[in-house]
Amino acid sequence: IALLIGAAAVWFATNAVRATPPAAGALRFENPVAVPPLAESHVEDGVRVFALTAREGRTSFVPQGDTPTLGYDGSYLGPTLVAARGEQVRVDVTNDLPDTTTVHWHGMHLPAAMDGGPHTPIAAGALWQPTWTVDQPAATLWYHPHLHGRTREQVDAGLAGMFLVRDDEEAALALPRDYGIDDFPLIVQDRSFNADGSFAGGLGMQFDGVLGDTILVNGTAAPYLDVTTGKVRLRLLNGSSARMYDFTFADGREFDLIGTDGGLLEAPVAATDIPLSPGERAEIVVSLAPGERIALRSAAPDPALHAGSAEFDVLELRAAASLAASPDVPAHLADVPAPDAANAVTERTFVMSGHNINDTQMDLGRADVVATVDTSEVWTVRNDNPLPHSFHVHDMQYRILSIDGSPPPARLAGYKDTIALEGDREYRLLVRFDDYADPTTPYMYHCHLLWHEDQGMMGQFLVVEPGQQPALTRPEGDTD
Ligand code: C2O
Ligand code: CU
Ligand code: CU
């Protein structure tokens, strides 16, 4: 046994990737940040049809050499899909990888069979055509693989992209919304590189996964963004597999937080920082003066868990000498009714500890929760660990009722699908199972630190009609 423990310790030590980005101020911003192209689509019998192809490629990030990567359509990341509330969409996903994958629509309300979790593998060479009607408020969602046990590997290699939902209410507001002009997606990831340019940390990691020393934004290292308008809207996605960020500007300037995972907040929240754990999104609007350069940075929110906790640079905003005027951010953004737990039919507790939830590991053949369609439940979630964890639920946007008995701060009071769990705190969530009953295919809830998820820190819930018997099936080929 001692030998085994020794071997494991060596394995972790030699494979550990736990690096720190250079301290703020040290980075030279040399590369214009890539803006993911908008995905093309066409309308076929009233259905908006997109096509995505997952494939292998090589991408140039660092001078020491090209990096073998995966991407949708291109060599790294994927195009941004845009659809309007009320539209029926279909995505023709072709898997050109030599390997099975899945595509999960993170944050989307949709039938479980279309959700792209581990129950809907796409074999190498196969085509998958999920279709659903977009029915949720305007929001910044994203997509990524969700293959059981291998999500981190495929996401870290480059498979991820944005999915923007539009709606009439958001479109009527005086907010920046010209994609690539005054409205930018920023997919923030950390990576480390081997001497030959390949990604480091492919095989093994520390207990919480890869922490890299190079920050990529939309796949660009040392990035800057040219700004031509007085205000710019940044749709921040923490697309990293383990690193938590606390986004802030170098001069501590205030910005407006206008939206979170599932859409706009009731009113803008004036903030100087916004923490995001892996999978979370925030939409912010920041003002710039003509000609100025200002760095978006991150402080590591938990120094104990993120080696070398100094503030580090993410991206520089470079304002043109003259800027087109932008209107003031509206004082009211959206109607976000207060969460009401009065009609919740059940309460459940989820204790996150080690790589387990309630002392159990993910089993594709077990329904951990069976919920009834069109009901709400209260889920109490606790992180019992010194490890960082988070809590993501598929299919829905939930609401935080309380944190340790107190109402959540304004930045967490809107629609959320992923939250960071601070140690020893109790988060009461109002979850709602709208619309789609299916006794055979489950949705997932899990820690969104991808290595934890891969290790089994995940559970499954079925949504059934009242009185319907669950009949969960294992995905083909699963032998757990
Ligand atoms: Cu972003 Cu279950 O995933
Ligand atoms: Cu998800
Ligand atoms: Cu975790």
TrEMBL record:
GO biological process: cell division
UniProt keyword annotation of Ribonucleoprotein present: no
Domain Plastocyanin-like: 63-169, 211-288, 349-464
Organism of origin: Microbacterium kyungheense
Keywords of the record: Cell cycle, Cell division, Membrane, Metal-binding, Oxidoreductase, Transmembrane, Transmembrane helix
CDD domains reported for this sequence: CuRO_1_CueO_FtsP, CuRO_2_CueO_FtsP, CuRO_3_CueO_FtsP
Protein name listed in UniProt: Cell division protein SufI
Family, per entry: Belongs to the multicopper oxidase family.
Entry keyword annotation includes Hydrolase: no
GO molecular function ontology, one term from the record: oxidoreductase activity
